[in-house]
Design brief:
The protein is mostly helical and about 170 residues long. It has one domain. It has eight helices and two strands, in the order H-H-H-E-E-H-H-H-H-H. It has a two-stranded antiparallel ribbon with strand order 1-2. A hairpin with a 4-residue loop joins strand 1 and strand 2. Helix 6 runs antiparallel to helix 7 and helix 7 runs antiparallel to helix 8.
Length: about 170
């Protein structure tokens, strides 16, 4: 159990932040300023936690593997999400759907973390889909603009086409 918690530390922290944001969205009406500070603190905590207690190993019969270099790559992704939360602070304060945006962005981050640590094609494909579907939803986040919906539709169609080709290639490998 301790090995599981150590190796999947990054994924578990991101999942806990997602669930915390879901509970905040469902349960309370926190203003965007306070919620943004809380989210930025949690993302900073996630970034700092990525540099401690790292170990190499594999789980689930080799479907998930990690090394110190993979933890470093996940920390770079965490830094990118934290930088996004800092750079677009003004836009986040104005939007009324702040928790939803961060839930989508953290879901994409979770998919990318799993993608980096994937050990076979099944986990690779599932994590790739987990990473791209929230990004398509974020592309359509500004519902008032027609170009936003068009961009999301183009991304979904190209993602479906590329997923079909990827699955066909994986079936040829097996």
């Amino acid at each position: 159990m301790n090995d599981f918690l150590t190796l999947m530390k990054s994924e578990l922290v991101v999942t806990c932040i997602i669930f915390l944001l879901l509970f905040i969205k469902l349960g309370s009406k926190i203003k965007n300023d306070r919620l943004l500070i809380l989210i930025q603190f949690l993302l900073l905590l996630n970034l700092v936690a990525g540099f401690f207690f790292n170990a190499a190993g594999s789980l689930f019969d080799g479907m998930f593997h990690t090394t110190v270099l993979i933890f470093f790559q996940k920390s770079i992704l965490n830094l990118g999400v934290f930088m996004i939360s800092l750079l677009f602070t003004d836009w986040f304060r104005k939007t009324e759907h702040l928790p939803e945006f961060f839930i989508l962005m953290l879901s994409a981050l979770l998919g990318l973390d799993l993608l980096i640590s994937s050990g076979n094609f099944l986990i690779f494909f599932l994590s790739l889909e987990l990473a791209t579907i929230p990004v398509a939803a974020m592309a359509n986040f500004d519902l008032d603009k027609k170009i936003s919906s068009e961009a999301a539709m183009k991304m979904i169609l190209s993602s479906a086409f590329s997923s079909g080709i990827l699955l066909f290639g994986i079936s040829l490998m097996y």
